[in-house]
Every structure is written in structure tokens, then in C-alpha cells.
Task: inverse folding
């Protein structure tokens, strides 16, 4: 069952929630970011989850004292997030020389 909050052409809530951190980390295309934001404007539960993720990210940044993670760790985390998003939503996010590119499977 898909849940698109009454909008049959809108994004599925499961997909939106799986991609909240891609949105928070600015790792999706502008078009996809706009689609996710439109969905959240019309879906209070998804907006709430986005807010929780945003607060968690700010808390972690504040508590880590501005230290930066090693690049190798960042790459492993990105790879894990991409793999999880593909497994859950079928959306592949790949880096290109022009930025990030999405492919739906």
C-alpha cells in the first residue's frame, strides 16, 4: 500500500521519509528537493519526521564541537545511505562531475 496523503500523483510517504537525510544533506537534485518539499507541505506526519531529522542533525553538529569526520567515513556513510535508499525506494543517487543525479528504477 502506498500512502501519498490524498495526492495520487504525489510522492509516496515511505519514499519521502527514506530520503529525508538526502534532503537535509542537500544530496538530491533541485527538482527532487522541490518534489519532497511540496509533499511535506501537504503532509504533517512527513513534515514532523523531517523536523525531527533536522533537529537531530543540528544537535549532532553542536555536540561534536565542529570536528569534521574523516573523508573515508563520509564516503562510507554516503555509500550506505545510497544503498538503503535504492533498496527501499528504487531511486539511485549518483555523483557526476556536475553534481548529483537521480535515477528511478
Result:
Amino acid at each position: 500500500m502506498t500512502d501519498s496523503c490524498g495526492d495520487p500523483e504525489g510522492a509516496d510517504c515511505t519514499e519521502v521519509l527514506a530520503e529525508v537525510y538526502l534532503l537535509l544533506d542537500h544530496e538530491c537534485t533541485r527538482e527532487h528537493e522541490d518534489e519532497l518539499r511540496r509533499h511535506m507541505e501537504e503532509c504533517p506526519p512527513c513534515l514532523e519526521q523531517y523536523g525531527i531529522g533536522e533537529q537531530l542533525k543540528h544537535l549532532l553538529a553542536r555536540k561534536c564541537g565542529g570536528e569534521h569526520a574523516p573523508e573515508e567515513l563520509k564516503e562510507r556513510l554516503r555509500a550506505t545511505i545510497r544503498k538503503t535508499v535504492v533498496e527501499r525506494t528504487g531511486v539511485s543517487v549518483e555523483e557526476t562531475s556536475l553534481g548529483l543525479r537521480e535515477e528511478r528504477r
